[in-house]
Structure formats: structure tokens, C-alpha cells
Amino acid sequence: MFKLIKWLLLLTVILGLASTAVVYGVLSLSLPALDGNGRSNAVVEPVKISRDVLGQAVINASSRNDAAYGLGYAHGQDRFFQMDLLRRNAAGELSELFGKAALGLDKKMRFHQLRKRSQIILQTLPEADKQLLKSYAQGVNEGLAQVGYSSFEYLLTGATQKPWQSEDSLLVIFSMYLDLQSATFERDQALIQIEQAYTKQMVDFLTQPSKYQAALDGTKLAPYSADIPTLPTQTQHAVKSIEANQERGSNNWAVTGVLTKTGAGMLSDDMHLSMAVPVIWYRTQLNYMQNGAPTQVTGVSLPGAPAIVVGTNNNIAWGFTNGYLDTADWIALNDESKTWQVDESIALPDGEVENYSLILSEYGPVKYINEKPYALSWAAHQPYAVNMQLLKLEQAKTVDDALAVASDVGIPVQNLMVVDSLGSAAWKNMGGIPARKAPSQLGVNADDYSALWQQNELQRPFVKNPQSGRLWTGNSRVVSAEDNARFGNGGYALGARSSQIRDRLFEKQTFAESDFYALQLDNQARFLMPWHTLLLKQLKVDKTKNQQYITALENWQQCACSTSTGYTLVKRYRDEVINILFSNMEDQLNKQQGTLKYVKRDLEPAVWQLINNKPDTWINPQFKSWDAQLHGAFNQTITKLTEQFGNKVQSWQWGKVNELVIEHPFAKQMPLLAKLLNMPTAQGFGDSYMPAVQGRSFGASQRFIAQPGHLEHAIMAIPGGQSGHPLSEFYRAGFSDYVEGKHTPLLPQELIHQIVIEPTQ
């Protein structure tokens, strides 16, 4: 019997090793070749595609079109499945990959008809842009063809790889509209529902300006001065947890040459996005000739598009944060409004087709909000939404050149921060902004609809070389109080992050790259200090019962540090206070297919007014008094932490509660693949409302710092590798440096691979 068991165990081990070998063998077939030679009729002169020790793609070409081909080739080799997801998500075509489970998401996307819009816009582009997109697409397809075998994602889904088309690159840009601006019209919908269920006064109360205002000109919006609205009689039910919409945005700041030792301007940019495997950005350097002169552009590209999104040409350096101007309105339709039905066909994997019908109007697609028809007018639906004008930044020599381009670029509106080697620094909104003059966060009557929606706004405020030598943005209001009335609030961040960045910049008189990097990693919890004071005072009412929590709070380190338990208690306590105060409102909105999710970031000023004034109608029916309500919030905090992380307070350290977990989408569905596909987990560092933004799968998708003309110390750190293939040497390259806060160089290091594509004779 013993020998039999021994042989069975041995057989199990052998079978396990054999199956592992088979898996790795199959995977290895789809590894791209990074060395060699090829030919293509898409290039005029030879194109070199090199990789450095991090896998950064270095493209050398004789023209911008040939460089686009080379970049497409590299993207096709390393990131095709990611690109496929981006285009399919924007177009509402994921069901063809994932079946009926994706139908709900596809229908949500088809509402915007972005595939059709991409096809229409493509036909209107200048011939030079069409040719560039064609070159890029051919590069993608030939890079993919070189691999020879489908990647494991297609083997698992049974789907086929469809060729890349020029219009798909426009869909990838549209995918960023969906990621960065959907919350704008979702927020407007919630505010319409709040107005209808409560009052306009309630809307004003919930969206009042905060004390955290950091506009570049220092102006403040007038504070809310009306009474606290009375909340209608509440019903008793279990407290609802109000989900917070991820704060898709970013930080950037700059100083003029007066504040650097080199005399050049210096830029910092870290874009905050959801993190997955592979990471969204792709390290790239393009080298090509333009009008007889060499051009070198280094930064990050978005797989699927032929441009450097954030980077430097050594004359200027530029970066973006999400603008959050009001780029969407819900138009309340009336009996005279013309509407018509359009049928969309959604393909499924087995050849079946799901039909989806939507209603259109002259103002945009129609949705019923509280049983009333509203049409969505959104910048992404307009002809100026998407184009290739971003590429003009590659040829800019000065800040003025970049500012001149800003109004023409077709991307989701961003805060462009730009510096140059001559010492200048500037800010301006870049991207599509509707020219209509009266944005609204509530419904707009159809009779008041402006034809200016069809035009892009060309007149925009900007700031260049301020007297202080400092510029900053962090998704809160940047424009003056006067300009705010013109450009509106599309869901601005509260301003705590921007304020902290601004204040840090005024603590020093000279800056180097290391100073900017330290500011990117600043996790001081200034925003939560009032909450810390409130909770500590509350707990000290019963010191004996609460001693372990009091000790944790007194040693909280005033930061979102990995070892801080006190930070966890304060952060979670704030969440539970908000849940208790607004649970009945959330319940009411849920009955109307609404939510406070997109308004939660606005609530801080209103919450403190409620805490300080303690109006009786805002006491949740579960509690008899305000003190009981606040104590109940802490009890709820402890209950939830215990359920999630056990009853040992030490296990509630922020590094564990906010652990960084960057997953491949397939690993979420098939946990057995997690070790192979995911990035290593890392202790949480940072949070919302501070420069070092980090959630469990969210945060700085890149950290970029540069002085044009002095790139030897420039930094580009990314939380993941270049390749989407789990067996690639570049799958996790650079991740550990990112987690450890090392200064990963922007410029390519030693080149270790090279492909040369010759023109077909």
C-alpha cells in the first residue's frame, strides 16, 4: 500500500509538471520575436524597432509616417489584446469576446454609437492624418502577424483576432472620453433626480464650494449662505454603503526656470487611472526626420494610438490632468422634440446577434430619467471630439507653440501643463470644449438648447509664467471664479489635493527632480485632520473602553502610511458618517435607478455643516440623537473592519487595508492564473485627497518629471511592464522600481533587441 501511495504521489507530481510544461509551451509560441529583419510595403525607408532593458520601444525612422508604422508594430507585438479591449469597449463590442455576460456593458456603450462616429470623423480628417493612421494600422497588423500564434486570451475565449483599422485608433481616444468624462453626465443625472425628489436648495447645499480652493489666480467661489434644507421624514432601514466613484484624474505642476538651477522649466505629471495588467501606458521614444531636421520624442504612448500622450521633445515637456469642465448637458425634451429609433446589432461569439434599440434626437441619444425623456448633449458626440492634432506638440519649440495648438486638439478636455528649455511654464485647457455659453448641472429645456454645441470653443483662459513661478492642477477648479460661470463644473475634485500641492510648492525656492518626486509621494493626511480631531474627542468620552483605538489615533503619523492603523480608523469613520447621513437619500435615488456615487466627492462641506449644526431631520431613524449617530458610525467602522480583516487591530494597518493589487482581467475570473498573470501585491501607500493617490487597484499610472534640455535626470516610473505576455522578460520590468519609489530614467537605457523593417522593393 505504501509503495502504491508513493507511486500515485509521484505520478501526480509528474502530471502536474507535464501540464505546467504544456501551458508554458503553448504560451511560449505566442512570444514575439524582438530581433530580426523584415520587409513591408508600408515603409519608405528602413525602420528600426529597438527595446532597452525595460522593454522601452525605441523607433528610428526617416519620417513620421514610418515612425507611426514602427510604433504600431511594437504595439501589435506587445499589447494587441489590450488594444482590442479598448476599441471593443468603446464600440460596445465586448460580447463578441465574452458572450452574454458583456451585453449590459455593450448596450451602455452603444448608447453613444462611437463606432459610427469614428467612421464619420475618419472621413473628415486631412489626408496626411489618414495616411498616418493607415501606416500605424499596417504596423499593428504586421507586428501581430509576426507573432504567428494567438495570445492566450484568444485561446481561452475562442475568439479570433480581428485586424486593426484606422477607425479603431479613434475608438481608443473615445475610450478615454468614456473613462474620464462619463462621471460628468452621471453626476448631472443624479443632481436632476435630487432636485426632483427634494429641491433645488438641496442640490445647492450638496454641491456647495469647499474651503479647499486652489485656482491659479487665487479667486474663491462664494460660500453657501442659505439654510440647511430640511430632510423629509426618513424611513428606517439598513444603512446603505454609498460607493465612491474613482477619482479619475491626475496631478501636475511646474515651475519656471527662475526656480531651477538649469534655468529650464521643470514639469511633474502623474495621471491617476485604474490599474490593471498590462498597465495602460507604453514607454516609447520616436526618432524621425521632419522638414529636414531630426525630431526625438520620449514619453508614454497609449497602445492603439500613434501619438506620444505625455512626454518631451527636449524643447518642451508636457503633461495632463483631467479638466473636469462641464462638457455635457441633459436636454429635457418636450412634445415638439423630434425623436427616432435606431436599431443596433450586437454580435455574440456563436454567431448569434442581440438587437438593441435606442432613441435619438437632434440633441443626442435619449434616456428616461424619472420617466421623463432627456437627450444627452456631450462633447464626445460632437465632430470636434477626436482628431490627430495632439501630434503637433512633437514639433513645438516653446511654450507659446504648445499653447497655440491647445484649442484644436481632439481629446477629452485636459489641463495642459507645459514647460520649455528656455525657462517658461504655462497652463491651458486642451481638448474638446463645447462653445455653448451657459453650462448647466441640471436639466436644460429643449427650447434653450444652443446650436453652439456643434462648435469647439477657441477662446480659453491660460496662465503663462506667473509671478510666483509656480503652476499646479489636481482636477479641482483651475479657472478664475469669473470663468467658472462660463466653463462650469463637470465634477471637479474637492481641491484638497491641489491645495496641498500648491502649499508644498511654496515651501521651497529652488527645485530639482528629486524634490518633485518627493512631492509626488507626499501622503500627509492634511484633509483628514479635522476628522481625526472629531473622532479622538468622541472616543475620549469613554477612555477605558476605547483605549486601544485612542492609542492608534494618537500614533496615526498624520499620513496614509503603510503601518498606520489610526489612518484606517479615521478614513473608514468618515465613510460611515457619510453612509449614515445620506443612506435614506441613496435609498430614494436607488428606487429611481440613481445613486449618490457621482456626488459623493462634493459632500464634504455639507457634512461638516450638518455635524456642526446637528439638525434634527438629519438624524438617521436608527439613532435617537446626533451623538448616538456619530458613535454608531464608529461602531459600524469597527464591525466592518473586523469582518474584513479580523479582530486584531494590528491587522487594520493601512498598508494591508489599502494593499496595491494590480490584476490581469482574466485572473479575476480564473484565480489559478493569478500568480502567473498579476503583479506582486504591495503595501498600500497613499490615498485620496493627497498628492500620493493610491487605492487597491488605482493610482498614479505613471510618474513623469522632466526639464527640457536636461533629460539626463528625467524620470518615468510605471507600475508594470511593457509586454502583455506573461512569459516576456518585460512583463513586470519596472514594477518593483515604481513600488519602491526609485527614479526610473525617462531616456532609454542599454538597447538589447532590434528589429529592422526594410521597404519592399
From TrEMBL:
<dbReference type="InterPro" id="IPR043146">
    <property type="entry name" value="Penicillin_amidase_N_B-knob"/>
</dbReference>
<comment type="subunit">
    <text>Heterodimer of an alpha subunit and a beta subunit processed from the same precursor.</text>
</comment>
<keyword id="KW-0378">Hydrolase</keyword>
<dbReference type="Pfam" id="PF01804">
    <property type="entry name" value="Penicil_amidase"/>
</dbReference>
<comment type="similarity">
    <text>Belongs to the peptidase S45 family.</text>
</comment>
<keyword id="KW-0865">Zymogen</keyword>
<dbReference type="InterPro" id="IPR002692">
    <property type="entry name" value="S45"/>
</dbReference>
<dbReference type="InterPro" id="IPR029055">
    <property type="entry name" value="Ntn_hydrolases_N"/>
</dbReference>
<protein>
    <submittedName>
        <fullName>Penicillin amidase</fullName>
    </submittedName>
</protein>
<dbReference type="InterPro" id="IPR023343">
    <property type="entry name" value="Penicillin_amidase_dom1"/>
</dbReference>
<dbReference type="InterPro" id="IPR014395">
    <property type="entry name" value="Pen/GL7ACA/AHL_acylase"/>
</dbReference>
<dbReference type="InterPro" id="IPR043147">
    <property type="entry name" value="Penicillin_amidase_A-knob"/>
</dbReference>
